[in-house]
Each structure stands twice: as C-alpha cells, then as structure tokens.
Recover the amino acids of this structure.
C-alpha cells in the first residue's frame, strides 16, 4: 500500500489521545517493533518505529496549539509510511492532516463515545483495536 495517515477524529475530551496510546500499546504487545525515536511525556507521547519493514509514526496529541503540526512534518521528513494521529472534528488539526495528501492517503476514523465511564473505556478499546488492525493491514501483517 502507498503511504497513509490514519487520523482519529473527535471532539475535545473524547478519549482520542488515550485511544492512540492504546494503539501503540497493542502494537508493542502483539508485534516486534524496532523503536527508532520516542518521546514519552507525562500525558502524551509520539514514537517512530519499524514494523515489518515499514516506518510507522504515532502521535497522541491532536489538539489545536499542540505539537501535532510539527510532529506530522517530522514524520513525513523521516519517511514514515504510516502515520497515526488524533485530530479534532474540524479546524487546524484537520488542515494539518489533509495537507499531507499527496503523498499520503488519509483514512479518517471517527472517535466513538459513550455515556458511562465503563462504556467510554470500551469505546476506547474498540477504536484502538480497529486502528491497530488497520496499521497491521497497511504494513502487510494481516
């Protein structure tokens, strides 16, 4: 597959960052990752790794005023084949992602939500699984 961005789109405080961090955790548990660069902050993180010969960049920050724009540029400059990130439903964060097309195809995922804390956690896990499977498919593992 060609280069792709998998962008998790949702409103503020909907669990986007948590879900993106779960994607990295699932990939770490299920696959052999070769970590190339990593920043693990108190709340958010970004990482570049190789998976099945493909470079993958993951950024959990997706709010306006965050480092997302810089990180996306860095991932592109580093030759990432797959980029996973969070964005708001509209505005600058969406513009930063769409600016990568071409050469990247943009695969938008909508963040699901629930009314209870238990339901919210289930939505995060379900969304993370869906994105993890897309990453694995895009690098040829499934």
């Amino acid at each position: 597959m060609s280069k792709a961005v998998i962008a998790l789109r949702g409103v503020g405080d909907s669990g986007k960052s948590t879900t993106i961090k779960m994607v990295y955790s699932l990939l770490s548990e299920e696959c052999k990752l070769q970590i190339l660069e990593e920043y693990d902050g108190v709340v958010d993180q970004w990482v570049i790794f190789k998976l099945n010969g493909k470079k993958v960049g993951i950024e959990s920050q997706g709010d306006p005023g965050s480092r997302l724009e810089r990180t996306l540029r860095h991932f592109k400059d580093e030759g990432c084949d797959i980029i996973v990130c969070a964005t708001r439903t509209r505005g600058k964060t969406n513009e930063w992602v769409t600016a990568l097309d071409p050469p990247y195809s943009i695969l938008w995922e909508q963040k699901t939500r629930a009314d209870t804390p238990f339901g919210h956690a289930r939505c995060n896990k379900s969304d993370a699984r869906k994105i993890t499977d897309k990453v694995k498919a895009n690098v040829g593992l499934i």
Q: What stands out?
A: The radius of gyration is 14 Å. Residues 117-138 form the longest helix (22 residues).
